[in-house]
Amino acid sequence: MTHSFLPFVAFALVASISPGPTNLLILAQGARHGLRSTLVPILAACLAAAATVLLVGMGLGQWLTRHPQAQHLMMWAGVLWLSWLAWQLLRSTGVTGAPAQARVFTAVDAATLQVINPKVWLMAVSVIGVFAAPGLAVWQLALVFLVIALPCMALWAVLGAGSAAWLQTPRRLRVFNQALGGLLLLSAWAAVLS
């Protein structure tokens, strides 16, 4: 074990547990559709984030730094897609089965969100730049990140599922969805505006 392992674990914990677009969408999914419905999206999101760490460590991060237009395209694709998801939450009626009811957050959605999220790429570049060291292979960093991210994201799903009983009224569910939609929109545009 290298001297950078424990600081990396702390970094991975903070990066995984802090509120962000994927965690907010997992929270909403758990609240609307139950804990079971979040398991596959959680696995997909965490695998995609770990794969991003692995790809950056294998050289893709250097390619991205040489091609800022690719970074810019990824940023705008991510912001626009997150804005669309936020719009779905904002216009949710709070009535189950209503036409404007927010759709299910799928495994493909979760993995795609991680792949086009500039925050995930910056996190991966930070992991490789700061914590990669002799004696700690890139695949080990990706694996440790995955192991830490899974329970962190699952906690967001549990919080969502735990709030489901409180969200039984259409008004509360509508307010909850709109609050999450607003936070998602804010988190999507904060990176662009900063």
Spell out the key features of this protein.
mainly alpha; 0% strand; 194 residues; globular
SSE layout:
Layout lengths: L4 H13 L3 H13 L5 H28 L1 H23 L16 H10 L1 H14 L6 H25 L7 H24 L1
Protein name: Membrane protein
Keywords: Cell membrane, Membrane, Transmembrane, Transmembrane helix
Membrane topology: Multi-pass membrane protein
Structural features, described:
By secondary structure, this protein is an all-alpha fold. It has one domain (5-193). 77% of the residues lie in helices and 0% in strands. Helix 1 packs parallel to helix 7 (138-162), helix 2 (21-33) crosses helix 7 (138-162) and helix 4 (68-90) packs antiparallel against helix 8. The longest helix is centred in the first third of the chain and has 28 residues, at 39-66. The protein is globular and about 55 Å long. The mean pLDDT is 83.
User: Please, what is the average pLDDT?
Assistant: 83
Q: Main beta sheet: strand number and arrangement?
A: none
Rg of Cα set: 17 Å
> Into how many domains do the coordinates divide?
1
Return the string of H and E elements: HHHHHHHH
How many angstroms separate the termini? 37 Å
Structural class: mainly alpha
Globally, the shape reads globular
**Could you name the ranges where pLDDT drops below 50 across 5 or more consecutive residues?**
none
